[in-house]
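Session log. Operator J.P. requested a structure for one protein chain; no other inputs attached. Running the standard single-chain path with token output.
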Amino acid sequence: MKSLIILLSLIFIPKQCNTVSSNYTELQKRQETITITYQAVSRGFFEEISISSDSITISNNINRKNVKTYNSSIEDWNTCLELLSKIKINGLSILKAPTTFRYADGAAHATLIIKDGDKEIRSSEFDHGHPPQEIKELVEKLQSFKKLSSKQ
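Structure written below.
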């Protein structure tokens, strides 16, 4: 009897805890509550790039001073949602980093953060510039927004 209860618990509980659907249609329905953030931190270095349905924010200061905010285009936002829909969001925390330079201060510690309403899901840490293959396209898209900051 105990083993039956344990088995049922293992099947049903993980599916209900902290789940965020990554279906593109579902993401579009909830797009007003979603924010996608790339953050990289090390001694003397900080970078945070976030996109939501209406804005892109870029900060190079850990205290979030001088945050630059830009309007996000529908195309950029939809591209990010499409890339997000290809990712198993609930598996972000167990992604394997392809490199480990950050362990010896060879690279900044980077994280992808998905906020959906009051839920926040963080990827496992990886080296800045070397994201896991599963999130590489989305991270590169987020980093492409840095050019907005350099234009002004």
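Operator note: DSSP finds five helices and seven strands in the chain.
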